[in-house]
Every structure is written in C-alpha cells, then in structure tokens.
Amino acid sequence: MLSALAVAVAAGLELAVGEPPTRLHPVAWFGRLVGAVDREWNHPLAVGTLAAVLLPLGAAAVVAGAVMLAARLEPLAAVALAGLVLFLTTSLRSLLSTARGVIADTEADLPAARDGLLALAGRDASDLSAGEVRSAAVESTSENLADGLVASLAAFVLGGVVAAGVGLPPLPVAAGAAAWVKAVNTMDSMVGYRSKRVGTPAARLDDAVMWLPARVSALLLAIACGSPRSVARARSWLDGVPSPNSGWPMGTAAAALDVRLEKPGVYVLNPAGRLPDAATAQRSVTRVGIAGVLAYLLAGAGVFAWF
What we know:
Layout: H1 2-16, H2 26-37, H3 44-73, H4 75-88, H5 93-108, H6 110-117, H7 130-165, H8 170-191, H9 200-209, H10 211-224, H11 230-234, H12 247-257, E1 261-263, E2 267-269, H13 278-306
Antiparallel strand pairs: 1-2
Helix pairs in contact: 1-4, 1-13, 2-3, 2-8, 3-4, 3-8, 3-9, 4-8, 5-6, 5-7, 5-13, 6-7, 7-8, 7-10, 7-12, 7-13, 8-9, 10-12, 10-13
C-alpha cells in the first residue's frame, strides 16, 4: 500500500508540477558528475566502466539511504520522499508540452521548430523539412516514453518486488532502483556516443537496462492507439535502427499511425507511409500521453498487488 501511494504521489506531482527548474533538479546535479568523466583519458574503457558502475550505484545508495532514514522517522515521510524520487526520475508532461510546441511551429515558424527540436532529439535539424521535424518529434516522444517514464516506473516496481522477496525494506530499494535506472540513462544520453570511448560501457549498460521498458512501452503505445497489431508490424523495420531498443516504441507509433518516421541517412520506419502532417503528429503526442497514464496505473496496480 505504501509503495502504491508513492506511485500516486509521483503521478500527482507530474500532473501538478511537470518539471522542476534545471538548477534545482537532482538529475542535473548528477549530470555534472558525469560531465567530469566526459574528457580524454589514457584508458577510456577502464574509466568508463568504473564510472558506469560507481556513479549510478552511488546515486541509488544515497536515495535508498534517505528513504530508509525517513521511514524510521515516519512511514508517510518515506512515502512522500519515495514519491518525490520517482517524480524526479520520470518525465512526461514536459516532454508532451515541448513536442506539441515543436509540431505547432512546423506550420507557423519552421526555423523555430528546428531550434525547438534540439530539446527533443539530438540531431542536426538545420536542413530538415517540416515533415521531417514532425517525424523527429513523434520519434522522440515515443522513444522517451520508455526512457523518461516506463524505465523508472518498472525499476521501482521490480526493485520493490525483489527487495520484498529477499527480506529487505521494499520502499527504499524501489526508490533506489528508480534512481539507478535514471542515472544509467543519464550517463548514456551524455557520453554514450561512438565518438566517446569512455561512454561505451554506459551505453552497453543502458542497452541492457532498457530492453524491457522499450518493449513494454511499445505495447502500451499500441494499446493507447487502439492498434494491438502495430508492435508485430514494427518488427520488420527495426534492423536499420542502431539502438536495439528505441526502434520498438518508434516503430509501433509508425505502424499505429500509418506514417513514415525517418532519421535521414540512418533509418526509415514504415517506408510505404507518408511523413506525418501536423494533426497526425499531435495525435501521436496525445497517444503517448495516454500510454504514460497507463504506465502509472500499471505501476500502481503492480506494487499494490505484490505488497
């Protein structure tokens, strides 16, 4: 019951607040630690491996310890703190709002849309057409459903379940697991590029961690779109996507909406379709929002059933 309440707290904060200012966001503070690793090293893989192991574990230990201490003082304080941690390790409202703004700008101010896309997708948008910008926005919102929400919710539930099974306090472990996953994902987003050897261990760890959330996100998105077969359709397009995970929710969105999603020179999902128009792209964002609500409900029901 306490873990389910923590999920409710996180969902309530997401609805009411959306996203704290960057200067006050613990994920941004963690990013500064990752930034210290992001430089040239004589043995980049060794340094990267140590960083990929120690930094997320450190974040998880701090969070779990804080929730455990709060539980000794007052159980509801632990619930509030665990809910706050889960809120800080997830993001939905801000993602949807940013995507909607970019899509709207593709019709009124394409240069502004290209600039705004930088907050969603790490690609050069200077030469993208309006349809390609909308495609990138749809891709990013679909992918970030997994990265920014489902991964931390799944870690919270699974961490609590495992803790209860071995006799550990579920709530601190659940909160620590959510923080660990967010730390891994943050490291990957900052240094997990082929050009940065120090980030290779973090990238490989993120690939493993995101395997389940990406596929769960695809299923949730298919349900939200009312297109249960879209996950199966997406499988035939995924070979060209460099990531072993991100193609699943993106491909599902392409199939469910019957649009082509394309990163020029890298991959094409649903090549027989057309790039999304503004109305279709906005509908995609709405469906991601519905899938996000389903993820919160599923997480709350999951912890309630187990505990």
